[in-house]
Amino acid sequence: MPVAASYKRLPDERVDFIASLPFIAVHFSVLAVFWLGVHKADIILCLCTFWIRMFSITGGYHRYFSHRGYKTSRWFQFVLAFLGTTCTQKGVLWWAAHHRDHHRYSDMPQDIHSPKRGFWWSHMIWILCPKFNRTKLENVPDLAKYPELRWLNKHHLIPPIALAMLTFLIGGWSGLLWGYFISTMLLWHSSFTVNSLAHVFGSRRYNTSDTSRNNWLLALLTMGEGWHNNHHHYMATANNGFYWWEVDATYYVLKAMSWLGLVWDLRTPSAKVLLRNRISNALGRIKGKAAEKLHDAGDALTGAVHEAGERIHTAVTDARAVAREAKDSVSQVVEETATKVQAAVEKSIRTTSTNEL
Ligand SMILES: [Zn+2]
Ligand SMILES: [Zn+2]
Predict the structure, then answer these.
(1) How far is the CA of 243 from the centre of ligand 2 (A)?
(2) FRET label pair with 288: which of 84, 134, 305, 320, CA 20 to 30 Å apart?
(3) Residues 199-230 pLDDT 10s
(4) Are the C-beta atoms of residues 204 and 214 closer than 8 Å to each other?
């Protein structure tokens, strides 16, 4: 996909490869599997750390801290922030502040991870640019007022290190490999697809001003975040799947937590929100189809007129040729007759002259 001039990278948007070494090293750590092997317990540990942390990003970092889609207590807010920080996606305030910008400037040149700036840029390269390291506290005053969240945001490496140590204690070196390194790499690329693929592949129910899509496969992989067009249409909800058939595992977990009293006031879209814009979408589709049909009819009419014109032209040309031929044969007959008459007259004159003599 070519990148338009207004979306081109600026000279200061460069990857810092030295600072990105840990990110690159996590990917290469997979090779350690040849030495450490694969054990059933490691796979279970990997799946647990993957899915629990996937929820902490989708239900915590995204739907709570970025969008305030539900309410919770201060202590559980810290638990969500701590769990989310184990995902190794920088601090909670940093993440929420950038995500709020994504919604404010969706797919405009100021949207720093729009796929219009290039697929791989939106997927992960932007994260490796030091230009975007600053936490935009001005975007998250409602969160920055909590000193414990500011502390966690500043010391965002503590939770991942704590998780890495825990997985080592549980399963030794192979536990660390599968429970932290491989799980983190899978978690990164799964959650990054929401910024990249969910803005490229899928369907659009709502006429949003961005390129967001609904994609069921991504929704399964990311516990409901794949309903991204729904989310861009109405971002302040605890659920991203708006209908029962739109599987949204994050919302199911949040719902179960609400029964336990851990969270409450889960925001869901009203019937009006669900309908808004769908109608204009449907009208747009009808208009589009009508315009298409009209265009086809116009094309057919133009074709018919052109064909009739060609036929008339051919007929006129043929008639002219016939007329020309007829004229030529009449002229020839007249000429021959005139010659014959002249010859007869001359002969008659000659005969009369001879008789007189
Ligand atoms: Zn988006
Ligand atoms: Zn969002």
Answers:
(1) 18
(2) 305
(3) 999 999 998 888 999 999 999 999 999 999 99
(4) yes
